[in-house]
């Protein structure tokens, strides 16, 4: 994980953050590799033997949900979102800092809303005993996983708001150099 701390970070929370980052990164890698293998096997089975893997579409759909919601906290913490900063060099630094704080607050609120809706959707899916069409797997558990990972992303955004408000952060020299070489692209 990126070092976003201002120096007063407790070693326990830093350890938990590193551990969470590693687990999510490993999970994203495993799920992506599994999707690739399943899709390849399904296409090969369909093309060569006229026997596709039954339910592969549903399995890939579940994997895709896990992949997206596991990657979202990673991308959010490292602040690797797509940004267009064409006008950043014309905006005064205090205004740019305020806009960055405002954007982090908006993202926290949006993710909190998504998290809340995932909880409601999971409850509806569980109450209705919704299952997939072919494999008849219950849908509620995957929605609850999405809820937990959305909640983690919301917490990450809240931490970023806190850091942007109360801690001085100077980008590393390498990031400054990359920004200087590629204006308008982050």
SSE topology:
Elements: H1 11-49, H2 56-77, H3 93-127, H4 140-166, H5 173-181
Helix pairs in contact: 1-2, 2-4, 3-4
Name the descriptors:
single chain, 186 residues, mainly alpha, 71% helix, disordered N terminus
Provide a descriptive summary of the structure in words.
This protein is mostly helical and 186 residues long. The protein has one domain (11-181). It is 71% helix and 0% strand. It has five helices and no strands. It has helices at residues 11-49, 56-77, 93-127, 140-166, 173-181. The longest helix has 39 residues, at 11-49. The radius of gyration is 20 Å and the shape is elongated. It starts with 10 loop residues before the first helix and ends in a 5-residue tail after the last helix.
Arithmetic mean of pLDDT: 86
Compute the separation of the termini in Å.
18 Å
Provide the succession of SSEs: HHHHH
The helicity comes to over 70%
Tally of helical runs = 5
Count of DSSP strands: 0
Q: Low-confidence spans: pLDDT under 50, at least 5 residues?
A: 1-8, 170-179, 182-186
Major sheet summary line: none
Structural class category: mainly alpha
